[in-house]
Amino acid sequence: MAATYSKIITIRIPRLNLVSTLHRSLDAISDYLFSVLDSLKAFRRRVASSQRTQFKNPLPSGNKIKKVLPLTILVIAVSLTVVSLGRAFLKSNKSQSSITRVSIAGAKATNQLNREFTFPLEDSKGNTFTTMKFTLETAELRDEIIVDGKRAIAIEGRTFLILTFKITSDFNKALEINTKNYFRLTKNGQEADLLAADIHNDPVVVQPTSTKYTRIGWPINDTDATLVLLVGDIEGEKTKVELNLE
Fold first, then answer.
1. What DSSP letter does each residue of 75-133 carry, written as one string?
2. Read out DSSP for 121-133?
3. What pLDDT score does 158 carry?
4. CB 107, CB 64: distance < 8 Å
5. What is the tens place of the pLDDT at every residue in 179-211?
6. pLDDT of residue 5
7. Which pLDDT score is estimated for 75?
8. CA geometry: angle at 242 spanning 118 and 115, to 5°?
9. Residues 177 and 210: beta-carbon distance below 8 Å
10. CA-CA-CA-CA torsion for 141, 145, 148, 151, nearest 10 degrees?
11. Residue ranges of E strands in 126-203
């Protein structure tokens, strides 16, 4: 996840229903061929009637029509099938390659944090087997965010406090981290009310010896002030980080 969330690119690939397209094409071809057959039959009747009234020995036009009719029908059917399927393929291919850009409003206020914290990870016996580093980058106030690929808009009088950070691991195996356990928020000087993040991507998977970008967030009131972030292990000591959002 990138450290900024002002724009997110989503590739949408619609389902290709070739069966439905083929049915529609065959229906169109069938209707057209029936109309052609009706026209040929009518033409044949007119020719036969004209021959009977104008000539004693009718010309073999009727036999020629019988010979030409199957070939004409085959050519028409093949042509219409190729055209219909070709158009369907081009339309589906164009839809698959389309890219939709989803934009959201920029941050109303930003606080550059640039703070680093290191936390030990313990096994079931309480032994530390590795450490991980949290690097806090920014805290932002936003009226619009992306949640599960969809735009979320704060209701009137409310806003989103979004904290972006990265996790660095030197461990040789993948780690699953519940990031919300390392952050609590207090507001309006009410230090007894420790607010857990409602917006998160937990569990965040950090691949071996790699860095992972992520975020957490809280919905708060527009009037909330004195925002303080408490950073630390859920059962350990916490470090206060005052958020000056302007």
1. HHHHHHHHHHHHHHHHHHHHHHT-EEEEE-PPPSEEEEEEEEEEEEEE-TTS-EEEEEE
2. EE-TTS-EEEEEE
3. 96
4. no
5. 999 999 999 999 999 999 999 999 999 999 999
6. 36
7. 65
8. 30
9. no
10. 160
11. 128-142, 144-147, 150-153, 158-169, 175-177, 183-186
